Amino acid sequence: MQSLIKDYVVKYLGGSGAEVPLEALDDSAVIDDIVFKSDSHTVKPLFFPGGDIGRLAVAGTVNDIAVMGADPLALSTGFIIEEGFPLDDFERILKSMQAACLEAGVYVLTGDTKVMERGALDKIVINTSGIGRRSPWLDKNLEEVRRHRTLNSRWLLDSNLAPGDRIIVSGTIGDHGIAVLSSREGYGFETDVRSDVAPLNLLMKEILKVGGVVKVKDPTRGGLANTLNEWSEKSRTGIIVSEEAIPIKRGVRVACEMLGIDPLEVGNEGKLVIASIPDKAEKILEVLRAFPVGREASIIGEASSEFRGVVLHTAVGGRRIILPPIGDPVPRIC
Ligand code: MG
């Protein structure tokens, strides 16, 4: 997927000169003070424990806009529907999107609906795009960072980290991927594990108010392993995290062990990974824990000049290199 994007899409469509362009491959793009994002959703099954494709389509785009340091304003939706798709299911999806929009404080302002002949696609594909406006809290937040060190960027970017920055996760990882996989394949783990899919823009706003945040990311495809590797590569710093500090639900841990999947590589849809200056990490943790979705938030490590790449301190006292996931251990979860 990475080389498909870099070697083909970026090759022909990059080069806009936007402040954060396509080729930055960050969570969203930035043009003037507008943050812009598009995301298509092909999750299978459409309805899974804890959510559905509609909630996912809203939350995914809202979160990608929010993590750049912007307030999501409006969405567009494109529905591509297979002929014969039950109207009851479509209505259920729309109701779920409506509820998620209400939760996030955004509206769908425009969209498009197409029907394709039976067999041309698998039930339904939903694209959501969205725009956001630069958060009024972003400048103050970045000033706080600059009181401690240099930072040239005007936005929260993957390339913003520096050694010493703390890494925080807002809760347990792997829930979404395992919930979807388990309900699709009938493994039965979903009795314990539900998807975490949720819009996080309001939580994001509270974190920005604390100040000292250098980057936030929603660890979706490729999970925490992918997020940390993107940060490490684009910021040219090592990152070290502690296995014991990474919150993982028992059900997710058991499922991953049985299926031979690394929970660090499993996608999430309702979590934030936050990099902040050391002085603010505890305060951010406190703010996160005040929210139900952030109750299990944890400081898991820090950026470090001692290493290149991402290193995990294992629970038994060893060290393991965390590579960017090759392929997708859990396909079609978003
Ligand atoms: Mg993202």
Walk me through this protein's architecture:
The chain is an alpha+beta fold. The protein has one domain (2-322): Phosphoribosyl-aminoimidazole Synthetase, Chain A, domain 2, CATH 3.90.650. It is 32% helix and 25% strand. The protein has helices at 2-13, 53-66, 87-104, 138-146, 175-185, 201-210, 223-235, 250-259, 281-289, and strands spanning 29-31, 34-41, 47-48, 51-52, 70-82, 107-116, 124-134, 166-169, 213-217, 238-242, 273-276, 298-304, 310-313, 319-322. The strands form three sheets. The protein has a seven-stranded mixed β-sheet with strand order 9-11-8-12-10-13-14. A five-stranded mixed β-sheet has the order 1-2-7-5-6, covered by helices on one side. The chain has a two-stranded antiparallel ribbon with strand order 3-4. A hairpin with a 2-residue loop joins strand 3 and strand 4. The longest helix is centred in the N-terminal third of the chain and has 18 residues, at 87-104. The radius of gyration is 19 Å and the shape is globular. The two termini are 14 Å apart.
- Which percent bin holds the helix content? 25-40%
How large, in whole angstroms, is the Cα Rg?
A: 19 Å
**Helical stretch tally:** 9
Average pLDDT metric: 96
Counted up, domains total 1
Question: How many DSSP E strands?
Answer: 14
Low-pLDDT segments: none
CATH topology: Phosphoribosyl-aminoimidazole Synthetase, Chain A, domain 2
Strand content: 15-25%
Characterize the biggest β-sheet: 7 strands, mixed
Which cofactor or ligand species appear? magnesium ion
